[in-house]
Amino acid sequence: MIIVSDRAADIDPDLLKDLDVHFASLRITLDNHTYESGIDLDGETFYKILGATDSFPTTSQPSAGEFAELYRKLAKTGEEILSIHISSGLSGTFSAATTGAQMAPEAKVTVWDSMTLSCPLGWQVEVAARMAKAGASIEEILKRLAVLRDNCEGIYTLDTLKYLIHGGRISHIKGLLASVLNIKPIIGVDKVTGKYIQLARQVSTKRSIQAIADVVADKYGAGSRLRVQLLHGNNPTGIEILREKMAAVFDCVWLPTVPIAPVLGAHTGAGIVGLAVGPASLFED
């Protein structure tokens, strides 16, 4: 079985060394230049450019035709294809992949809506690829992905709301009010709609970072043994604040910290701090 995903998945490259995963391109345009996220634009370069310009970046998903072309190419191997993508509530990528699969009837494709993004999406891709390598069936993999989708979270806080406002992901009025009051939201992705939701809020960046651990405790309970992966957009100081707080409250199984992908940073700006989190037991068999 072949696993396909997109560049909205944040995955430590070392985890993919022995796994066969193909990624559809997601593009980002900044200062009149168009890049492929994760290919010719890495996080460090992206945030450097972003900090030096007044323009807003824009993103574009792969077309259905591009997915169809990829599926046809992969179908020549004779392998079944599982295509795992960013939440349908946040991007049209899932819809494009579904249409692309219909355009390539010679390929046996199952398209999966992760209902998340970033590292939690990466975790689903990682587990699916490992199970596929071990010979698991599509039914077994989808059952496992459903458990991960229901029990793992991505939780983030932002230093600025202007990029979410510009992209229409939060209302202009609410965003301006929060900015004036210096309110820093803690956000996640709703498991029903697949859209961003506010989980809590604080009145400073440091407090909002620390409050992420409180949100985690409300869901999993203090002292729980959790798989944790930290991520950020050019905010190493914020990451250390979050690491210290999480380590004080939970028994953490740490994965390598990763920079948030440029295609996601385009929606959040620099300064974002967050984590992927879920019960460690889900990854230990």
Helix content: 25-40%
User: Strand percentage, roughly?
Assistant: 15-25%
Judged by helices, strands and strand pairing, the structural class is alpha/beta
CATH topology of the largest domain: Hypothetical Protein Tm841, Chain: A,domain 3
What is the highest CATH level, the class of the largest domain?
A: Alpha Beta
Number of E strands: 14
The radius of gyration computed from the alpha-carbon positions, rounded to a whole number of angstroms, is 18 Å
Write the element-wise H/E pattern from the N-terminal end onward: EEEEHEHEHEHHEHHEEHEHEEHE
The largest β sheet comes out as:
7 strands, mixed
Describe the protein's architecture and organization.
By secondary structure, this protein is α/β, with parallel strands linked by helices. The two termini are 20 Å apart. The chain folds into two domains: 2-26 and 61-150, Rossmann fold (3-Layer(aba) Sandwich), CATH 3.40.50; 153-283, Hypothetical Protein Tm841, Chain: A,domain 3, CATH 3.30.1180.10. 40% of the residues lie in helices and 24% in strands. The protein is built from ten helices and 14 strands. A hairpin with a 6-residue loop joins β9 (184-189) and β10 (196-202). The model has no long low-confidence stretch (mean pLDDT 90).
